[in-house]
Amino acid sequence: MKKILFILFFFLIACSSADYSEIKVKEVIDGDTIILSNGKHLRYIGIDTPETRVKKGNEFVYDPQPFSREATQFNKKLVEGKTVKIEFDLVRKDRYGRLLGYCFTGGTFVNKKLIEEGYAVLYTYPPNLKYVDSLAEAQKYARKNDKGIWGVYQTINHKQAHKFINQIRTIKGKVLTTYKSDKCTYLNFGSNYKTDFTVVIFNNSLDYFHKKGINPVDFYLGKLVEVSGKIREYNGPEIIINSPEEIRVIVNN
Hints:
The protein is an alpha+beta fold. The chain contains 7 helices and 19 strands.
């Protein structure tokens, strides 16, 4: 028993001290997830790409969303079979046990490049905000120059959001009402929050809004905005955002 514990102890030390300054990419899973040569799955921080698999019932099935294949192929071109450097932020793993990191290869910041070329959109999750300003600038560039997703898909009126569940889109509409619960802040774009489009901001993201001088409940009320991200279904269509960079005010009230 002591021998087993001894071996386990040194195994855990070896895992925790793994060197990610130079490590090879074994396989690209999709636009934002790779498998490293040590068998670890790595999810890129700060971005979201269209899914190749979506959850139906209790399982995930292969159902490529628009632009998912292009994002996967571009990621492969950048990193598959290559030696990369991985940087970590404050939170090192997600709830699925995947590593969370920033990927660099040959002078290219991969997370940023995917956004810059329009294969990904900004998707932050506090407290992993190390490069959020750089990634936000990359998205501004991609939108301005109609790169990738931005050149293919037009902005959608919030009333049409339900047609694009599990897809990455930009939604435009006026915030009619706002509400803060114990867990979230809701920006409602229609009169019925159970069926109409909603933007959701979880409480653990509010500090980043406050640092920018924004109280979402008051700041966005009555304003025409555009918000970009993956549309999910929960009491109607919704997009979850975690930073002010993911929502843009077009017209004040």
